[in-house]
Design a protein that fits this description.
The chain is mainly α. The chain is built from 20 helices and no strands. The protein has helices at about 20-55, 55-70, 80-90, 95-125, 130, 135-170, 170-195, 200-225, 240-260, 265-270, 275-295, 300-310, 315-350, 360-375, 375-385, 390-415, 415-440, 445-475, 480-500, 505-515. The chain starts with 20 loop residues before the first helix and ends in an 11-residue tail after the last helix. About 40% of the residues are buried.
Length: about 525
Amino acid sequence: MTEPVAGSARVRDGWGQDDRPLRTIARNVATRYLLVVAEMAVGLITLPFNLHHLGTEAYGLWMLTAGVTIHFSILDLGYGGAMVKFVAQYRAQKDTRALNEIASTLFFVFATIGVLAYLVVVGLAFNLDHIFKITPAQAATGKWILLVIGVNVAINFPFSVYGGVSNGFQRYDINNVTAIVTNITAAVVNVVVLLLGFGLLPLVMATTFVRVTAYFVYRRNAFRVFPALRISPLLFRRERLREVTGFSVYSSIIDWANKLNYELDEIVIGIFLGSAPVAVWAVADRIASSIQRLTNQGNAVLLPVVVDSDTTNRVSRLQRVLLEGTRLSLATVMPIAIAVIVLADPLIRGWLGSEVIGAVPVIQILAFAVMLRVGNATSTTVLKGSGQVRRVAMVNIVTGLVNLALSSLLIKPFGLVGVAVGTLIPIAVASIFVLFPAACRRVDVPVGHALHFAAWPAVWPAAIVAVCLLGIQLVSPGSLLAVVAEAAFASMLYLGLFVLAIGRHDRGEYVAKLMTIIGRGNRLVPVA
């Protein structure tokens, strides 16, 4: 079966079902990338601005208290992902009542979780000085910051149902656009508040107000996408909760493990070193996270393909997904990560100054961790979508625990570098020696063949680019403009070498697929 002709008329029924799924995916992915770019741009502008106007101590206190609330997302219990799954399922069945029962049940479950989360926030807020190495004055300010941010955390839980409805109807794009506008608005408010001479607490209050207001826009989006949506306590059903929980439990395990593995470092630093080093770590973490978000969006669309291929026992298709996905993931992340590793010192000096120069080695280590995470993302998706989600969950939990233990052991003798190394080692072991081989076995591909086909064409061009960049550093002026120019040169050089590395046959296939996606092929063919 083929997809509709590229130029055919668009057909959408009352349930928002579209006859051009490839275009829908492209729209959702494109707006997702716009959101990532917007968030990165906002971060690049506001981070040095906030550091300059607030100072390292105040900014570190803000990041420390905000970092505490990030971990409340584990209280989602996997219901967020389950919400999208069941909305999509009952949308396909055109079952309005079931969809509204799912939405109503989860809304009131999340409302209860939100109340409990805020009670925990209150308890933490009045005990910050017992948890972190901060002064009494910092504890007093941090208390109010946490109480304000906690409002956003609590309200987010029930209102996430509305976002789930839009996503379940494959309208990620309108949520993405809303998030873009919200981030830009919050950044403008941030700048205005500090330029008017207000301090940290008014800044947090103002930006929190912007984000809470945005929740009502997400609610409006949901009713636009599905006008028959109804949220009511009368539609709460225990049997719906049991139905959703059967799916969410595995999602929650993976989510908890990811939080443990990737987001506890700031807490460890705050406990052992205080708030000022948290600001330095936040710079490195912001850059590493931006690289990952910028290069890992494509893997999100692979899960349905993997599930379909596994269900229909199409082993050859699973093999193709693993090999091509891994190769393209590595080719996407490697030039950016290599440029950041080599150019980290002039980047930080030109962007933020020498005050946070201690972030340079941390950035370099975390960039290697990002390369492994993104390069291994397809393996993880293949395992999750082909019946081995438990394996992924267990590996992530063990990786997170080892990360926590190593970071705690290495932070005293090596400081922030020790925390970064403690993060890198378990990720490397899990990615290279556990998850990737497991994915190869699952799709009956020898590990050696997978490394030769997927990894080697992406790795050796990166090595050449790194050597060239190191040579350029001998004559580079080290300015921020030079960093941008050198990074652009590195990306273009890598692209040319990668195109050469994959060979003539694969070059032809990639060009044909690209022409099909942009609508210049004769027909839109199914994704293989």
